[in-house]
Backbone:
């Protein structure tokens, strides 16, 4: 029985017209033969909240910034960042240089916490809950720093068209430096925990392999693509914001191991090194940050007037923690909302590669392989499994899958 | 492959597609302190030349990256923009290439490009269900995001009568679209 023909789950959540967001409940459909995954299919769409529709029909662009911030709880800088870049192009709004640097600092802080969060989830998926607790405790430091600098841990409302809403003052710098030094001091320890542990290696090496060619054809972006040897990073490739002033190089796993395998282990390498890279970027930005204003238009009515009068189109492309994020915006004169707003989050394209990654693997490896792309695994609460030999269909709960994964780790440890 | 300048790329599209080429423009914007330039190219082609235009992009980049297909309802026609990026992987050398094609609402059909770029499948499925543009030859035409309960013929991104307005719930404290505070139309 082919994947598309398997029995449907009776999921019925009332939703509007929609767009993909990160951290979504995803339904995976696996076709298995004994323990082996033969085919896989992804079903998305359970948590779509009509965000693009709101931006095109109900909200003015300034309100859309705050809606964009809520597309994803983790990427709450990347999405508004994309939107403001796109609208600034369409409406020809300039941004002060200092604001560009603060934007970069905000998005790099986000990358640090996102990657460490992912590392914890990955450890949890293979049954290493002590490492999970360790990494999430380590993550608290950057969350506290974000709260200290931007006023809130999660939705920070830091961005505005033509600048940022909060400055980084001289008094804040020692506290920022303290946090960055903390990460530098524990970085080696984290690397040892993840990269030198024998069991982690056994569970992640040659698991969930995505070849370079497949990554290119399936348009995989971000750390997942770079782990497969595609040196694609918007921060390196295309000048946007203060990244254009910095000399950033995309991180591929061959820097450490000399080869590109494209498996889960390589994805761990890339993400860990990117944490280090982010710390360096923040330090460089703080050094180079020019003085000056942080907003080009501080009066809200005038800004809204200007946005209503604007006509044009723009694309905002930002390297989010999970990969390239892109917003396309089209504005028409006299229209108070955006005329078109298309959001594409990185997980959207990374999910295309899921069937390729999962094919030929054991069911117990599915959680870590899927989580290695950094989609929302905690929301993927059900997987429909069809046993090809018996034709029996059963819905395996996420807990059951997790138990299988933990058991495999225990067996390997013996 | 030799890297072409933005203008040379537009010229090569014009030469390759002949009558199928409509227009091309270059957008540049200086960013941050060093004033490096963000560059994007916009090429509009006729529908008949669309598939050839996508094939032509492969002459600039072995695997062109398709970010997304965006679609706008312009009243009598629907505009699709295929957002490609080429020359990636090198410091500040990447170009965004927006391939624009306009379809009249009487004939909303576009050939699939999954034969050239397999990863385009999600965005083609989305365009099909959200904008009602039929992607001819799509290998997997199922819905992607819209729930099965929503009837056929409702396209959320449209701004005409096929839009989703009739399914919108008016929540307490909100007036239906188009009504003033007293509820008068």
Residues:
């Amino acid at each position: 029985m082919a994947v598309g023909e398997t029995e449907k789950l009776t999921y019925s959540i009332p939703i509007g017209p929609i767009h993909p967001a990160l951290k979504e409940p995803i339904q995976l459909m696996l076709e298995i033969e004994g323990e082996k995954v033969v085919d896989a299919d992804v079903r998305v769409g359970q948590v779509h909240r009509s965000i693009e529709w709101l931006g095109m029909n109900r909200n003015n662009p300034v309100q859309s910034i705050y809606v964009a911030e809520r597309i994803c709880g983790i990427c709450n800088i990347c999405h508004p960042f994309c939107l403001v870049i796109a609208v600034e192009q369409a409406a020809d709004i300039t941004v002060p240089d200092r604001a560009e640097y603060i934007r970069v600092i905000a998005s790099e802080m986000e990358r640090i916490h996102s990657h460490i969060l992912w590392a914890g989830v990955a450890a949890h998926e293979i049954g290493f809950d002590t490492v999970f607790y360790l990494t999430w405790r380590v993550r608290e430091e950057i969350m506290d720093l974000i709260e200290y600098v931007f006023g809130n841990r999660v939705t920070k409302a830091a961005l505005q068209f033509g600048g940022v809403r909060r400055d980084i003052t001289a008094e804040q710098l020692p506290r920022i430096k303290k946090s960055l030094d903390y990460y530098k001091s524990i970085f080696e320890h984290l690397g040892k925990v993840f990269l030198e542990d024998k069991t982690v290696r056994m569970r992640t090496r040659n698991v969930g392999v995505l070849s370079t060619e497949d990554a290119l054809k399936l348009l995989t972006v971000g750390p997942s693509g770079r782990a497969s040897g595609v040196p694609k990073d918007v921060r390196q490739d295309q000048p946007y914001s203060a990244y254009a002033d910095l000399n950033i190089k995309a991180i591929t796993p061959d820097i450490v191991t000399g080869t590109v395998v494209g498996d889960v282990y390589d994805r761990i390498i890339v993400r860990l090194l990117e944490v280090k890279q982010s710390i360096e970027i923040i330090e460089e930005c703080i050094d180079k940050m020019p003085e000056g204003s942080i907003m080009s238009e501080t009066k809200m009515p005038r800004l809204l007037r200007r946005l209503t009068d604007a006509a044009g189109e723009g694309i905002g492309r930002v390297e989010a923690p999970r990969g390239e994020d892109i917003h396309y915006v089209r504005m028409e004169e006299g229209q108070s909302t955006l005329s078109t707003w298309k959001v594409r989050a990185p997980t959207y394209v990374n999910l295309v590669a899921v069937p390729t990654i999962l094919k030929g693997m054991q069911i117990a490896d599915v959680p870590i392989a899927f989580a290695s792309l950094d989609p929302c695994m905690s929301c993927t609460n059900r997987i429909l499994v069809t046993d090809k030999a018996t034709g029996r269909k059963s819905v395996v709960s996420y807990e059951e899958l997790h138990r299988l994964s933990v058991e495999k780790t225990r067996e390997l440890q013996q | 492959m030799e890297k072409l300048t933005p203008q040379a790329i537009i010229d090569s599209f014009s030469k390759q597609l002949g009558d199928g080429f409509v227009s091309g423009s270059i957008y540049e914007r200086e960013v941050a302190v060093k004033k490096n330039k963000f560059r994007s190219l916009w090429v509009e082609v006729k529908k008949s030349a669309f598939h050839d235009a996508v094939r032509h992009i492969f002459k600039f980049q072995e695997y062109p990256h398709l970010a997304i297909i965006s679609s706008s309802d312009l009243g009598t026609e629907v505009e699709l923009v295929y957002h490609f990026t080429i020359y990636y992987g090198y410091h500040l050398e990447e170009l965004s290439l927006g391939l624009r094609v306009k379809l009249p609402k009487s004939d909303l059909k576009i050939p699939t490009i999954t034969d050239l770029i397999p990863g385009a499948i999600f965005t083609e499925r989305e365009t099909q269900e959200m904008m009602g543009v039929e992607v001819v030859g799509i290998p997997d035409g199922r819905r992607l995001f819209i729930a099965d309960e929503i009837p056929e013929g409702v396209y959320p991104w449209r701004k005409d009568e096929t839009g989703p307005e009739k399914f919108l719930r008016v929540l307490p404290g909100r007036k239906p679209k188009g009504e003033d505070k007293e509820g008068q139309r």
In short: Chain A has two domains: 3-47+349-413, 94-296. The two ends of chain A are 37 Å apart (CA to CA). DSSP finds 17 helices and nine strands in chain A.
